[in-house]
Amino acid sequence: MSFLFPALVDGPGGKAALRFGARSLTYGQLAAAAGALAGRVGDTERVAVWATPELETAVAVVGTLLAGRAAVPLNPRSGEKELAHILSDSAPAAVLAAPGAELPPALGELPRIDVDAAAVGPVPEDRTDESDPALVVYTSGTTGPPKGAVIPRRALAATLDALADAWQWTGEDVLVHGLPLFHVHGLVLGILGPLRRGGSVRHLGRFGTDGVARELNDGATMFFGVPTMYHRIAEALPADPGLAKALGRARLLVSGSAALPVHDHERIAAATGRRVVERYGMTETLMNTSVRVDGEARAGTVGLPLPGVELRLVEEDGTAIAAYDGETVGEIQVRGPNLFTEYLNRPDATAAAFTADGWFRTGDMAVREPDGYVRIVGRKATDLIKSGGYKIGAGEIENALLEHPGVREAAVTGEPDADLGERIVAWIVPAEPQSPPSAEELADHVAGRLAPHKRPRVVHYLDALPRNDMGKIMKRALGV
Length: 480
Known about the structure:
Blueprint lengths: L6 H4 L5 E5 L2 E4 H15 L4 E5 L4 H12 L3 E5 L5 H11 L4 E3 L14 E3 L18 E6 L9 E5 H15 L6 E4 L6 H14 L2 E4 L5 H9 L4 E4 L1 H10 L4 H9 L2 E4 L6 H11 L3 E7 L3 E5 L13 E2 L4 E5 L15 E6 L6 E2 L3 H7 L6 E9 L5 E6 L4 E4 L2 E4 H9 L4 E11 L3 E10 L8 H11 L8 E4 L19
């Protein structure tokens, strides 16, 4: 298999590779530091990485991959119980951390390796196979403890190369982002992606619209963010013409990890002249689809299947939906080199996740346009509402609600109804808490934009929606 990071051995050693705030490494310095760390990791099977948004986290993961071992990124905000489960399940030989980083008691018994970003060592010969594990990333558990998705080296290469094709991503690109580094979006796309291309990444440490503007004005060409970040950008744009100008300079703006509301899409496009590109992936599959940079950035869709990825929609009984009409809702199933190999120590869960012929059951519900574009409507477990004989995706109702000027945030769920089977429930953060729009007004608003059977029957008003570290709404906290 080809080397994951050719630029570490063949590229210009003086070119900027990583920058975190005032600290940076060239490709030559990164190769030396990661090579030295690879020698210290040795022949262990797995090592944990205390994934703080620092230079050392990137060096730790690259060094582990150079050693041919698997990295287990740890969320520094995880609770003791979750950390204890991950450590027991993955059994790492050591934890890699930035010098001076304070580790919680759950890591107390694990040997610690401090990552020296100034160390010098040779890049080892690549003797890995494409099927060898590269990462073990723990998915957030909604019905039980998190499961460790084993991601092979093949999946990293396949996803990053497919995105390079879709986004025309090259070594000339400079990416800016402020995402956490313990998951696929921030780590794989945001750090390993630029390094595979031979480009540069500038990490903000902490997201802020001022930091995004500064880096785009200073030569960055791409920005990756989650919907919460783009919402804050959209809110800031009217009073900040400098931000609009900086975003207009970007070659590519990408949103992922959750659906970007159409309202925010349109506000950003109107102010900057740039359309945000959405893509769709998950821990177990890395990236499945994307809007292409040379295609139509159609708000509300996640584009087309990436090169090498097979995608189909299926009915509840597993029957593939034969014709795409932009209306029929089905579960997304995917197949391709981008998939994980197994849930660590969970053969039962692994077997249940795949069909007999190798399709991965994503649990995501979508419709597909006649030209192949995919539009996610929600998760099967929390976002598919069966009401009055209709299958309804929560996502499209949320988008409609967000178009109402009196709505700042919106989430939609279903709850049991003796007559309808399920009734649609809206959870609203009003723009003006003292004078929120009435339930009747919101129902009429949705019915007029979508269809009468999609109107919310119940409306709850909140001060804020519960969200996780990635900005995703935690619907189970709403009583789903």
